[in-house]
Specification:
Elements: H1 2-15, H2 21-39, H3 73-90, E1 97-98, E2 105-106, H4 118-121, H5 128-153, H6 158-169, H7 172-176, H8 182-201, H9 205-219, H10 224-244, H11 247-267, H12 269-278, H13 283-290, H14 303-306, E3 316-317, E4 322-323, H15 329-332, H16 339-348, H17 358-373, H18 384-404, H19 410-429, H20 440-463, H21 470-486, H22 503-511, E5 516-519, H23 546-551, E6 556-560, E7 563-566, H24 573-576, E8 579-584, E9 594-599, E10 604-608, H25 624-644
Parallel strand pairs: 5-8
Antiparallel strand pairs: 1-2, 3-4, 6-7, 8-10, 9-10
């Protein structure tokens, strides 16, 4: 991690814009605070304590604090896919197919596998479970550094740029989702905007290269919806930059930027084309077509839609297992960027003179906010990425104006009073509908913290008008609040929980061979067995093949969210799927053809006595879309080399 930061610093200093040593020091402090125990202290960032809720892990000793229950996907969805990508590269082959889940499914075509994502690949030298912290730290570092550089290029001085970088890089969208692929889109967005600004104002080959790399990595982020919103902001930014240029030079700039985007898309085609070919066949596509995804529980403009952007704990907190808002804390509070940030951004609504691209960001941010508040379906709350970015950008602009000029003290006082009233109203009004004392300490405690940070922000603006120490102090204030809020969301786990092997798991590892296994109900969650080199006939993935989901419907007893739970062990489909072994709770009783082969206090393992032929694991799989993508990537590399490498003298 330190090596990657050093290389980034040297590259920026040599070819782009220098980041001051003080800013690097501030970034190092916040990264050490967030991820230090996992990066250097032997802890693990993944919520492995959550395994205790499932057979065969229920006898594990609990941790203090417990894992975050919202992050279960990180160990049952994200990490297993990354493990298969590593396994494929380690065997010297493209990560095209995942044979260890279900009947197999596309791997490179699954965006969440992040098979070509640079931030995931940079962590591959580390052990799989240690890599999660390194990837998370790289995402936050990238967002901090390039938001700072972008703001510096927008006529904003260092202190205000640092405040904006903290508001975005430590804001709700990136930090709450930091372990998921969609955080890649948030991390690469500022780099793409910074590259765009450099192309517009200088346009050297190195600037085109930076823009191309950032757009390529953004397209490979792993979450199509977040990518789309990030690209929308890039397009709006490009339009704003074009309008700043003389009329005769606008077309040339847009043409160069468009060409770079096309080359970046072609370079990403080995992943994009298979995904475009496969995704219509997925379970998520079927549910979208049927309209069977859960609709929002609140109508347009309902407080549940916007209150968490101001008071993220007003409806409780999913981290502490009690939340009565619209969806969960990650979804609803992803746009929160700090109370001081919100105050500064509100003051920017009437701010003059406008700084470069401020109107563009303000317009995009308001559109995204209206989209979220006025009734967009729950599945499309990703515009909060743009809300978070707009709040950070506008806050930095306000700080810069207050540093330059002495301004009237009435606007911040009135705005702060209105914001304080909203905070008090939200805390008093939205108590738990059945038990008002639920998480009362958390809710009222955070009301006090919000009011403290709000008061300090107002004092900074009033007492330090026109003084240079105001922006760095405001930056420290923003960072302190966001760290205090988001640090509990990522409790480090002890090394003893690094994929613990119970006796039942060891038994399966010795006996499974080329067979498949499964488990009943919520036992040994789907995909998790693949981390133990076991082939699991179950499959948990929103992008699971629709055909396999339909095939296994007779033995599926319920959905736990999007996780299938299997039952009916007497059904012949188990034999048809090649399930030789079944893991259950130790007190389970299964009918024929199952016979118990192992039992202890944690679990039992049953063997299917039905004779059936062995199944094939590593089927040859090379979709035409991948071959076409490789050709496009090669063509893109050749064109980029011809454009960027100067001819010999």
């Amino acid at each position: 991690m330190a090596g990657a930061g050093l290389l980034l610093a040297l590259a920026l200093r040599r070819w782009y814009d220098r980041v001051p040593a003080a800013a690097w020091g501030a970034f190092a402090v916040v990264l050490a605070t967030l991820f230090g125990p996992a990066l250097a202290g032997g802890k693990l960032l993944l919520p492995l304590d959550n395994l205790r809720g499932h057979v065969p892990f229920q006898h594990l000793e609990p941790t203090d604090p417990h894992g975050n229950p919202l992050q279960g996907d990180l160990i049952t969805l994200v990490t297993p896919s990354l493990a298969e990508v590593r396994r494929a590269y380690g065997a010297g082959r493209w990560p095209l197919w995942n044979a260890r889940v279900g009947a197999g499914m596309p791997l490179l075509a699954d965006p969440q596998a992040q098979a070509l994502q640079p931030l995931a690949l940079l962590a591959t030298p580390l052990p799989l479970l240690r890599a999660a912290a390194a990837t998370a730290a790289l995402r936050v570092l990238l967002a901090l550094v390039f938001t700072f550089l972008l703001l510096r290029r927008q006529e904003i001085r260092e202190g205000a740029a640092l405040a904006g970088a903290f508001a975005y890089g430590l804001g709700g969208f990136l930090l709450l989702w930091v372990g998921w692929p969609l955080a890649n889109a948030a991390a690469w967005l500022p780099a793409a905007l910074y590259g765009l600004v450099r192309v517009a104002r200088e346009g050297r080959r190195r600037d085109l290269l930076l823009l191309g790399i950032a757009l390529w990595a953004l397209l490979l982020a792993g979450h199509p919806e977040a990518i789309a919103y990030a690209l929308a902001l890039v397009a709006a930014f490009a339009a704003g930059l074009a309008l700043e240029r003389p009329r005769g030079r606008r077309r040339a700039f847009l043409g160069r930027a468009g060409l770079v985007l096309l080359l970046a898309a072609a370079a990403a085609a080995p992943a994009l084309l298979p995904a475009a070919d496969y995704l219509p066949q997925s379970l998520r596509a079927a549910r979208l077509a049927e309209g069977s995804l859960a609709p929002p529980a609140a109508g347009p403009g309902a407080p549940e839609r916007w209150v968490p952007l101001v008071a993220p704990n007003a409806f409780g907190n999913s981290r502490f297992a009690h939340y009565w808002g619209l969806s969960n804390t990650n979804e609803d509070a992803a746009g929160f960027a700090g109370t001081a940030t919100l105050l500064l951004a509100l003051l920017a609504l009437a701010g003059k003179p406008r700084l470069p691209q401020e109107r563009v960001v303000l317009g995009v941010g308001l559109l995204a906010l209206f989209w979220v508040v006025l009734g967009v379906p729950l599945e499309t709350r990703r515009p909060l990425l743009l809300v978070n970015f707009a709040l950070a950008y506008l806050a930095a602009c306000t700080l810069e104006r207050w540093t330059r000029d002495k301004r009237r003290i009435a606007p911040p006082l009135l705005t702060a009073a209105a914001l304080a009233a909203v905070l008090v109203w939200a805390t008093v009004t939205f108590v738990h509908p059945e038990n008002p004392e639920t998480l009362a300490v958390l809710r009222w405690g955070w009301l006090h913290w919000h009011l403290r940070f709000l008061t300090l922000a107002v004092l900074i603006l009033i007492l330090a008008r026109g003084r240079r120490w105001a922006p760095p102090t405001a930056a420290a204030l923003v960072a302190a609040e966001l760290l205090l809020l988001h640090l509990p969301a990522h409790p480090p786990m002890p090394k003893r929980l690094a994929l613990p092997k119970t006796e039942a798991i060891r038994f399966l590892q010795r006996n499974l061979g080329d067979d498949r296994m499964a488990a009943l109900g919520r036992d040994f969650p789907p995909n998790l067995p693949s981390l133990y080199d076991l082939t699991d006939a179950r499959l948990y993935n929103p992008l699971a093949p629709r055909a396999y989901t339909a095939l296994t419907a007779p033995i599926r007893v319920r959905w736990q969210g999007e996780v299938p739970e299997w039952g009916h062990p007497d059904h012949p489909l188990y034999a048809a799927l090649g399930v030789r072994w079944l893991l259950t709770a130790p007190n389970a009783h299964l009918p024929a053809p199952w016979t118990r082969a192992f039992r202890d206090d944690a679990a039992a393992v049953w063997r299917n006595q039905t004779p059936f032929p062995p199944h094939a694991h590593d089927l040859p799989y090379r979709p035409p879309a991948f071959s076409l993508g490789l050709a496009l990537a090669a063509l893109s590399l050749a064109l980029a080399t011809a454009l960027l490498v100067p001819p010999p003298r």
